[in-house]
Amino acid sequence: MPKTACIYVPRKSAENFEIGLGRGLWGWRSSALDRAGSRQRVQSLNKGDLLVFGYWGPNNRVAVGEWADVTLRRVVVAEVSEPYFTDTAPVWPDDDYPERIGINLLEDEQSVHGSALGADAMEALRFSATKQGVAVLQAGTAAVVQFTDTLPPIPDDEPGDGILDHTGAESAIAQVLVRREQAKLRKALLRGASEKRCALCGRLLPVRLIRAAHIKRRSAASQSERRMLANVMAACLIGCDELFEHGYVYVTEDGAIAVNKSSSATPDLAAVAGSLEGRLVADFGTHRAPFYAWHRDNIAV
User: Fold this and answer.
1) How much is the pLDDT for 162?
2) 206-235 burial by CB neighbour count: b if 16+ within 10 A, else e?
3) Rounded to 5 degrees, what are φ and ψ at 246?
4) How far, in Å, CA of 194 to CA of 29, rounded?
5) Spatial contact of 32 and 134, defined as CB atoms under 8 Å apart
6) Which helix (H) or strand (E) holds 293?
7) N or C: where does the chain have the smaller number of CB atoms within 10 Å of the terminal CB?
């Protein structure tokens, strides 16, 4: 059964929090995990288990249950991407925090009222706050489900399940949250338009046939890269999205579309991929070049 770990992050740890989210890592001082089975709880976290980080709440030295109605400045939901390990490689400026887990960020919301997470999760975060940010475990994923239900609905014109490919999300709940992230990017990319040209083939299509596609795969991108419009292109569902996703075509350092030798697998595939060869990808520039370079070096090989 999946589980959820509730972890409190105080205001004074704001810099460490940003660094950890950006690097996809979280860690603890060994002294914090030496007490009351805290290390065993962290060691029990498996890939795909969920994490609820509560950042900057009010005074935690209050009676049990009194955090149910407070507001946290920020709530971040993530999932475990790498179970417990130890490492002293420098990450944070003030300490090693050698007992670590890998994390995959899923949702980041500001000013979250306790009702969005539920009384049990809020009490778990309050308890974590009193114990140097140790992980407080809850069986199941009820808190994250409740939190997800409070978020605005996904737009009706969002493309289907294919949007979740290669995201690195493990669980169904995680995939829902990733899809929300994609919907935000899509809204920013389309800016309310009813039609959009595919960046690769150049065809003008209804937006239902356009995907906001990551150039550098989400599973390989940092937190900030996942949310950068420079790492997103309009790719049509008629075929360009899949051709690019699987590396049959790629973008050269000059912004031209090139064909990978793997596209010769069948004559029809070669013909479709070949029809794009030599075209200049739309909105190519220095802001997108590093992401196309990553795709060229890691996928189109």
Assistant:
1) 39
2) ebeebbbbbbbbbeebebebbbbebbbbbb
3) -95, 5
4) 52
5) yes
6) helix 289-298
7) N
137 lies in the same domain as 218:
no
Low-confidence residues in the chain, pLDDT < 50: 160-167
The closest of 138, 123, 71, 78 to 104, measured between CA atoms, is 78
**Each residue's pLDDT tens digit, 158-175:** 554 334 444 455 578 888
Same domain (yes/no): 205, 142: no
Task: Tell me what percent of the chain is helix, strand and coil, each rounded to the nearest 5.
Answer: 35, 25, 40
Residue partners of 279: CB distance under 8 A and separation at least 6? 200, 201, 202, 256, 257
pLDDT tens-digit profile of 53-64?
999 999 999 999
| Distance (Å, whole) CA 282 – CA 255 | 8
Q: What is the per-residue pLDDT for 172?
A: 82
Q: How many CB atoms lie within 10 A of CB 163?
A: 20
pLDDT at 102: 96
Contacts of 258 (CB under 8 A, 6+ apart): 249, 250, 251, 252, 277
Q: How far apart are CA 98 and CA 120, in angstroms?
A: 29
What is the number of domains present in the chain?
A: 2
Q: What is the pTM of this model?
A: 0.78
Residue 156 lies in a domain: no
**Residue ranges making up the domain that contains 284:** 161-298
Three-state DSSP class for residue 155: coil
Q: Which SS3 state, helix, strand or coil, does residue 249 take?
A: strand
Q: Is 39 found in the same domain as 126?
A: yes
